[in-house]
Design brief:
- The chain has helices at about 1-10, 20-55, 55-70, 70-95, 100-110, 110-125, 130-135, 145-155, 160-215.
- The chain is about 85% helix and about 0% strand.
- It is elongated, with a radius of gyration of 28 Å.
Length: about 220
């Protein structure tokens, strides 16, 4: 590679290297000599992360983080709200009692935080509360969803209203994902460009010193 060759030039010329160039050279040497350690460590991190995620505490914590994450959190929330409203609407339209429908819907939700809200909603509905009350109390679902559920319950068209919510959120998720994809591409270009510029400058500055010594 280029870095080891330039290092030999710097050593032969006894150039005093800045800390960032020494760091780059050290990192290059480490990758060449211990590349297998990087693979092993990455694999161990993957296994540890998977084991943590599969634990009840890990899954709960991760799902909570997923909802709170910048940019991605709003997408995760909308995907799960869409799944909740779509599944519940389908079940209620098929004549399934609301308690049973909520239990089935809860088991289809991938996010544990949302699933807990649905479980609490089921218990509250069993005790005589309207569905919108525990949903609003959770402070997890968007206010617009709560309002539409409340309207659906008042008008007796809960199934239809849930279906409208699902369609609206499906469309919004598609728009957000398209926007995210269009944002990721230039960000990747900037990051890769930054890495290349850093490497080039780390090597170029000492090379300028070498050229000055030759003169």
């Amino acid at each position: 590679s280029v870095v080891p060759k330039l290092e030999k030039v710097f050593v032969s010329m006894k150039v005093v290297l800045p800390w960032y160039t020494e760091g780059l050279i050290g990192f290059s040497k480490f990758l060449q000599a211990k590349w297998y350690l990087v693979i092993i460590v990455c694999f161990l991190i993957f296994l540890a992360a998977r084991a943590w995620y599969r634990s009840q505490r890990g899954r709960t914590t991760f799902d909570s983080w997923a909802l709170a994450a910048p940019i991605f959190g709003s997408i995760v929330l909308r995907v799960n709200v869409s799944k909740f409203t779509k599944t519940l609407s389908t079940l209620l339209s098929s004549g399934v009692p609301i308690i049973t429908a909520l239990e089935i819907t809860k088991n289809t939700i991938g996010n544990q935080t949302i699933a807990r809200v649905v479980e609490e909603a089921k218990k509250s509905v069993q005790e005589g509360e309207a569905l919108n009350v525990p949903i609003e109390r959770s402070n997890v679902f968007p206010p617009l969803v709560v309002h539409m559920i409340k309207t659906g319950e008042k008008t007796g068209d809960l199934e239809k209203m849930l279906g409208h919510i699902a369609k609206a959120y499906d469309a919004e998720v598609e728009r957000k994902i398209d926007s995210l994809i269009s944002l990721i591409e230039p960000l990747m270009i900037i990051v890769m460009g930054g890495i290349v510029v850093t490497v080039v400058l780390s090597m170029l500055i000492p090379m300028l010193s070498v050229m000055n010594q030759v003169r």
